[in-house]
Design goal:
This protein is of the alpha+beta class. It has helices at residues 2-11, 13-20, 71-76; strands at 31-42, 49-55, 61-67, 89-97, 107-114, 120-124, 127-131.
Length: 135
């Protein structure tokens, strides 16, 4: 009986970790993208997402997906889905890269993004904050 209980608990750990931790991302590394084009920006639970395109050194457009904290945390931080639309340009996006083998290529966790007006949104696994820029 104890073996069955342990197996059931272990089977449920992965889905919880997938939505409530950064274990799939290398928080000791950063990926910095400049002059990105927004494809989609969703503020939702269990986590939001920023999908964007960046041009690599070879001139190729590369699509990235960056996870955000939960919609609740993001909205409490002053950030809403209406702040970005497809086609908007962001000067800078900083992410923690996904760990190869654990996430799809070009999947990351959003650390910060700069809006065209100079505002900066900063994210942690459990919070979001909008800092007003100079404009």
């Amino acid at each position: 009986m104890a073996t069955i209980l342990v197996a059931l608990v272990a089977a449920n750990i992965h889905p919880v970790a997938a939505h409530h931790s950064t274990m799939f991302f290398d928080i000791n590394a950063e990926v910095v993208h400049e002059n990105v084009t927004v494809v989609d920006f969703v503020v939702a639970n269990p986590h939001g997402v920023l999908i964007y395109v960046v041009t690599d050194d070879g001139g190729n457009e590369v699509r990235w997906q960056a996870e955000l904290p939960s919609g609740n945390f993001t909205r409490r931080g002053g950030i809403s889905a209406s702040m970005l639309s497809p086609g908007d340009r962001l000067p800078t996006v900083v992410c923690w890269p996904g760990i190869p083998g654990l996430v799809r290529a070009n999947t990351s966790r959003l650390k910060s993004m700069e809006f065209p007006n100079g505002d900066v949104a900063t994210f942690t696994p459990v919070s979001a904050e909008l800092t007003k820029g100079s404009e």
